[in-house]
Design goal:
single chain; 434 Repressor (Amino-terminal Domain); 8-stranded mixed sheet; 241 residues; 11 helices; alpha+beta; 17% strand; Transcriptional regulator; Endonuclease, Chain A
Length: 241
Amino acid sequence: MSDNLRYALNRARLQPVDLAAALAVDPKTVERWLKGRIPYPRHRWAIAELLNLDETHLWPQITPPHQHISDEVLAIYPHRWAVPHTVWRNLFQSAGHEIGILAYSSLFLAEDAGLLRLIAHQADTGTRVRILLGNPESPEVAARGTEEHIGPHTMTARIRNAITLYQPLRGLTGIEFRFHRTVLYNSIYRADDQLLVNAHIYGTPAADAPVIHLRTGHQDGSAHVYLASFERTWADAEPGT
């Protein structure tokens, strides 16, 4: 029996049927979870997000993937989709000075209204936010679409969609947008001294590629290499309009 899940639901004043409705699953599925069956990852992350808890608190038998490998490497995730939503939220929520996003589209973030509100709130409290997206007209964007086997026009469409979804952030004080024409080998998501680095692998969509969670340490550490790459790309990018 999953006593931790049952206790967490009680504390949140939620009934199993409420959880089933929130996750769009059959109430019998929730009952199986309460009897001890471990949910699929996507459901675990949604439950943890709903209850504002880490999934390991609800299911202690689950070991987070390669957590705290060293002082600099905090975690390695086999795929971007395997990074729990709470990790993204906690990353941006922890920022007090700087948030940086370097990607082609980062559409998965742009589609998350909750994270956009969080980033807007951080900017309102004085955190500098810099968002670097691919120039949708650039040949580098077209080439990346071809490499991912989705076609150049699809990658361009993703970026245009992301630009539209990021619209609530554009024009806000403390938030800057630029568009790059860079061949990216990684997408970088920064919050002060922490980074989530999503590798770009030929023929593999970014969502399926690994993510490394880093914390800056010594000046000769790998995190500073990624930060320097971000700054070079920012300096060469075109200001957003």
